[in-house]
Write the structure tokens for this entry.
Amino acid sequence: MSAGDGIRVASLDDIPQGEGIAVDKSVTGTDDDIALLRDTDDTVYALNDTCTHETASLAEGWVEDGYVECPLHSSRFCLKSGEVQGLPATRDTCPHRVEVRDGEVYLFPGETP
Amino acid sequence: MSERVVIVGGGVAGVSTAGALRAGGFDGDLTLVDAGEFPYDRPPLSKDFLAGTQDIKQIALKPQQWYDDQRVRLMNRTTVSALRPADGAVELVDGALLPADRVVLATGGGAARPPIPGAHSDRVHVLRTAKDADRLREALGSGARVLVVGAGLIGAEAASTAVRLGCEVVLADPVAVPLAAAIGAELADWLHGLHHRAGITTLHTGVDGFTDRPGGIEARFTDAGEPAAEPQVFDAVLLGVGMVPRTEIAQSAGLRVEGGIVVDERQLTSHPAVLAVGDPARTRRDGVLLPRTEHWEAAQHDGARAAATLLGTTPPPATAPWFWTDRHDRHVEAVGHMASAELTVVRGSYDDPAFAVFGLRDGHVVAAASVDDPMAVRAARRMIDRQVAVRAGPLADPSVNLRSLLRG
């Protein structure tokens, strides 16, 4: 599906630690925007941006210790697997492979991490 | 470990208990008894579900498959009529006995129906179940004259939905500024003011009588026993004046009930085989009965604690209480105990599209409330839970990243 080197979507410095940014689906070619989420240990993860509960952007959520918390009703998702951790959301979200090389973030939309 | 657990009630507390039990490794029989078709989430009942933009399937707490995956036997459309701990069972409404080594009461509550004369009219509604919401929705056509009594969370949210649907809404509450204790007087006043700006007429009165008239119901308004405002005729009335915990089966089983089913900090009732969670549970700590918490997340936490008690594991750490409310397209969150703050600071201003209020005491955040700035409350919650020392100045400055304050 994707280019072998991934799509360069951001610089690491664009994403504050513990926060996220959304990459538009026109760039990723996916059905949903993709949230790039920088964990508190500086690892960057990518998940579908829209919370599986209601319309809210996970990129605006709280990122900490391996999880992102939805800004609307605090549903938590595992950054690695996209697995939902608690109500009100009930469905997992989709993770995407992401790589950081030389301070640049490369996304592989649709590829399992 | 017990082999057979029966959870009575399929609200967020009951379903959370089931989920936490399985997540914690419970391998016995797990049965959830619920009166409805399937357990559903209640917050949308005053918002999108009431507006008709979400249907019952969309507000299911869990997909049907979840119950199979988690080996939860969902006994729907039935109720438990009695606890029979001596027989190791609960009795269902049809008289059948369901074996139960331990029982978790997640019975929720019913809408309060104060004894106001005339309140039995078909035009008077309450809002607690999906059925209530379905019935109320039919009364909320464009141009309908609607009186909402009580401007707390449910009343305010339903009023907001009704005005969005084109109703002419009057919102009456004898309390001048609802929610003041929870989010601080200033923010509560601002929030209450949103109703007026959205075209709702707010009355600072109670209601002491209804009379059915041809084509409507007349409401009489009262202020401390004196007539206030002229009587008015409405097409529909919603009473949003609180809930009554459902404690009957606990009471008849001889469990201790005092304004709620009394539980300890592990959710154990006065009977060692019975636990209680969510709205009807009332915690006694160090001999003192605490107020019941009626919030969604608190119910979830109760479930996690009850599961830990049943499993004999360590319960998750307590966290500052949190709730949200949505009205007039503004998303409000609150955490902690604003009433205990000795100083409040506003981050941003009330005119901003997003802002937050922090309550401080002794150099620590004890509470916060936000309007369209939920991350401020998420930060505040961690400041409270981790007891991070913070100064008012940086908190009030929107250019300061709250996460940086959290790092200390």
User: Anything to note?
Assistant: Chain A touches chain B at residues 16-19, 60-62, 69, 71-74, 86-88, 90-91 (CB under 8 Å). The two ends of chain A are 14 Å apart (CA to CA). The helical segments of chain A are 25-28. Chain A has a mean pLDDT of 92.
